[in-house]
User: Fold this.
Amino acid sequence: APQLFLSPEVKSACARQFPEVFLPSDSLVIGINPGSVYGSAKRWLPERFAEVGDLLVERLAREFPGSPLVRCVLIGGKGEEALGQGIARRMRYEPILLSGRTTMQELMGVLARCSVLVTNDTGPMHVAQALGVPVAAVFGSTDPSTTSPHGQSQGVVTASVRCAPCLLRACPIDHRCMTQVSVEQVVEVALSHIRISPGDRNEGRMRGHVG
Assistant:
């Protein structure tokens, strides 16, 4: 599987640029990547990303009362700022909003800090995989047998609909491949693969199940 490694200098620069992501050092960071430049057919519903983020914060806080701090970070490329802002407004637990604010190198640093990435089928999904970050990836119009994150097929979430994968940029009907993926499905996949301790984050190990 392809692997990416960040130098200590890059990690330090990212920590200085985005201290809210890196401090405290024992916090759990949940990455949320709701966009997709290919087209709307690949995008899960924004309100469901918001709900997943809130539920993960609650479930992890229950699992580890008192410590560690659990935060969500919203990422995205240029042009996805409004999408990130809309999701942030829906969330009950204020996320760190970085949509459209990172360079590629900074994005890699932020992803490496995440305990899990909740995402559509996108470039950042593959970057997270190469960094050893577990993903909960929602697939609809695209084919997970060809583009799922290498070695993380268990992190793919799909709905069983006859028209998928259609490989279209925009859905011509009712987007059922995405609307039929539930919040709880994605939460369960994220919890079952999340990295918990700082040692796990450094060495790429994953916890069996939380929840």
